[in-house]
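Suppose you are handed a protein chain with no further information: no name, no annotation, nothing but its sequence. What can you learn? This example shows the usual starting point.
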Amino acid sequence: MAYYIVLSKLTDEGRKTIKENPQRILEVNKEIEKMGIKVKEQYAVLGPYDFVNIIEATDNEAVMKMSVDLGSRGSVQLLTLAALPVSDFIKQLKKK
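A reasonable first move is to predict its three-dimensional structure. Written in structure tokens, the prediction is:
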């Protein structure tokens, strides 16, 4: 399994949706999990993005499909970054 950081920015439609139904955030998480992706952590943040999510997925293709599905709804824009735990990063650097 691989880790990814997903930065999400709500559109006007997305802000309207969660204002009327804040539980929609958790409903989307369940939809993501049905795609085989686990939401490990989720934070609402201030600044240029509205949410930071740490997810775990089998591969880039699974995350790509999730991004296309969520983005096509018109309620959110995503920026996804592949992530590697620092302990794994150090192990890789020590390999010769």
